[in-house]
Amino acid sequence: MKFCFRLSFSLALLLVISCGPRDKETYLQQFEDFVEKVSSESGDYGERDWQWADQKFERFSGEYYERFRDELSWKETAIVKKYEIHYHYHSSSTKAANLINGLFSDEGQAELKSRLEYYVEHEMEDEIRLLLLKAEVKSIEAKQKLMSLLRDLKYTIKED
Fold first, then answer.
1. How far apart are CA 80 and CA 88, in angstroms?
2. How many CB atoms lie within 10 A of CB 92?
3. Total domain count, the chain
4. What is the span of the domain harbouring residue 119?
5. Is residue 136 part of a domain?
6. Does the pTM of the predicted model rise above 0.85?
7. CA-CA distance, 139 to 132, in Å (whole number)?
8. Are 116 and 153 in contact (CB under 8 A)?
9. Within a domain: residue 56?
10. Which 8-state DSSP code applies to residue 160?
11. Angle at 126 between CA 112 and CA 76, to 5 degrees
12. How far is Cα 31 from Cα 23, in angstroms, rounded to an integer?
């Protein structure tokens, strides 16, 4: 009987813990820990890792934020926004690098072309510039391939 009680208690505790942070301090600490983890490990992330990270980020920036929003001071709200910016920076930068690394395979070129079409259609100049910068860092050949794909899409980079 004791075993059943302990098992039930453990399962109930696990359920409560898995429902996310219980207070704003825990929320802020867990969000910070998550962003730091992504920041330090993003270079090794594959597609599944990014799916996990993106889902977790959506919970922190959406569901959990809404839960504690009214309790956050303006300073804490700014901290949450800082975490969001850091996450997006590491996410975009790593995903752009992965796209460039795959540029030399047929599959990689098809994915990159699809991504570029989306960026062009939605006028996402900053994302295109980020890809060009990553390609330039990678190699001259990578940048030339990327520029060729942009020419195929009849897209020119706007001057600053």
1. 12
2. 15
3. 1
4. 24-152
5. yes
6. no
7. 10
8. yes
9. yes
10. -
11. 115
12. 12
